[in-house]
Write a structure and sequence with these properties.
binds 5-O-phosphono-beta-D-ribofuranose, globular, Nucleoside Triphosphate Pyrophosphohydrolase, 4 helices, single chain, alpha+beta, 293 residues, 14% helix
Length: 293
């Protein structure tokens, strides 16, 4: 397995255009047909509503100020913002600033403002794809599909906010490196480290450090996340950590915690329905391992 990560720079977004905005009943996006997504296609009638969730407007530490109403010019777009300790660079290149705010590089979403996202521009996340081969209980042999392809499994969590199954990823905290985010989120969501005793915490840390010491980058770029808007969007780095012999992660005691209400080993196949762009990361992982899809 090796180095090349996919960059879906020519992708469009679909989930970022769903009509009713997440965690609202009545915030509806302006309709954007497929052909009107790119900014260079004229759409004179385009009048998207403006929405930023109250949780973002209440100025928590993870959110930016409203750059449209202040004269604060200290934010460093398309750069590492040292003052805020936030990476405002996009994985997919330079984004435009229009009317003082970053413009979604993929195209129109039908909504202005930040919605549920704290940062204007890219909101960086990291996603661990932890895999093992599916094995027969009795013989320990790897299970194959009808075409003789070995079946891969990955650790999926059920999100608390919308109950969709997803990778146990999360937001990169200010100043944090992606590798730290991956370990932290996995330990919190899939192993419930936040509620473990101090002896259990130590065990979790040792096992997680060993597993995550070697991974393969599967994807870095834009995420088709339902929270995206014309001015704020999700980006991620997804890394695969594979337990080929079923000797390490395969023995972890999974326990949903923090933002997850469920956790399980899930068989990988093309029928999977996952949050945001996670299906495409899983497909890429299956292909890299020449596994069943
Ligand atoms: C997705 O949102 C990313 O791929 C990542 O899995 C997730 C991060 O957001 P939270 O889970 O912290 O809400 O776009």
């Amino acid at each position: 397995m090796g180095g090349r990560a996919v960059r879906l720079t020519t992708m469009t977004h679909i989930k970022a255009r769903i009509e009713v905005y997440p965690r609202t009943d009545d915030v509806k996006r302006f309709k954007v047909p497929d052909e009107k997504v790119p900014w260079n296609v004229k759409y004179q009638e385009y009048e998207p509503p403006d929405y930023t969730a109250p949780s973002v407007l209440s100025k928590p530490p993870w959110a930016d100020p409203d750059v449209r109403t202040t004269n604060d010019t200290s934010i460093k777009w398309n750069d590492y913002d040292k003052a805020a300790n936030v990476n405002r660079r996009s994985h997919i290149g330079e984004y435009k600033i229009v009317d003082k705010t970053p413009r979604n590089p993929i195209g129109r979403t039908g909504l202005r403002g930040r919605g549920l996202l704290g940062r204007w521009g890219p909101n960086h996340a990291a996603d661990p794809i932890v895999t093992r081969w599916k094995r027969q209980n009795k013989t320990n042999e790897v299970v194959k599909d009808k075409d003789g392809q070995p079946v891969l499994q990955f650790i999926a969590v059920q999100r608390r906010d919308n109950k969709e199954w997803a990778l146990p990823g999360g937001m990169v905290d200010p100043g944090e490196s992606v590798t730290v985010t991956i370990r932290r989120e996995f330990s919190e969501e899939a192993l419930n480290k936040l509620e473990a005793s101090s002896t259990e915490k130590k065990k979790i840390e040792t096992a997680v450090n060993a597993l995550f010491s070697k991974g393969d980058e599967i994807y870095r770029g834009y995420v088709d996340d339902p929270r995206n808007t014309d001015n704020s969007w999700m980006e991620t780095i997804a890394m695969n950590f594979h337990d080929d012999h079923g000797k390490s992660v395969a023995n972890f005691k999974l326990h949903a915690g923090d933002d997850a209400v469920g956790v399980q080993w899930m068989d990988i196949s093309k029928t999977l329905k996952l949050y945001a762009s996670h299906e495409s990361f899983i497909k890429e992982t299956a292909q890299k391992h020449a596994a069943s899809w």
